[in-house]
Amino acid sequence: MKKLYLPVLLLLMLCLNSCVDIEERYDFKADGSCNVIYGFDMSRAVAVLMNLMPDSVRDSPQFNMSKDTSMNFYAALPDTTQRKLNAEEVKMAQSSNLGIKMDLKRSVMKVNISHLAKNSSDLQYYLQHISQISMGSNQLNIAKSKTPNFNTQLTASGDYYNYEVSPHKFYRIVDKNKFNAFLKKTGSVFATAKAMLIDMPYKVVLNFAKPVKKVNNPKAIISPDKKQVILKTDMADVIKDPSIMNLKVDF
Q: What is the band of 192 on the pLDDT scale with cuts at 50, 70, 90?
């Protein structure tokens, strides 16, 4: 089956985390493990951009197909990226999953990357490397076989955080130099999204087995039982002040 090429604007909107609804979820277990899920919901951007498509494209067989499946994250990486990974990175990618829910006719496009970290050291390694892999790969082959071959780059979180993770703390601080470099690469896409009235919500959810002891971010919402911490913001606000995404949790 021939590849279906989307207009350049759609590729740009889908390939950067600046133009999707992002939710990071961390479920810390009593045994020290942590399940991490990065969710990317591109449905609203697709809905806006689908209105720009000619009828001949919207009515094509590929656009009427749907997909709801999961696959190994390593298998979704291009061969060129796989060859660049070291042994530890290969192991990490192979133990991660990529979930895809796609129904373009109904403007549904959701992707998530999940990983179960065995302990705090495993979690820190994952957080420090997963963004580098997804950003450096240029493309993820998120659809194969009998479905349209849509290629997109997904940036799990951003490669501009410094992490410090232990059995009783989760710290992440924005590296301003890295963040500024990120903005230089994506500034035009942010501007396009703003012009098209597409907001860019960013949500972080942390669930804990026991009540947290301390949270440093005043914007964080702590549940009554102190077992859940939620930080909600918008990329437009983050651009103005990256420090609003700094988060230190002691538990």
A: low
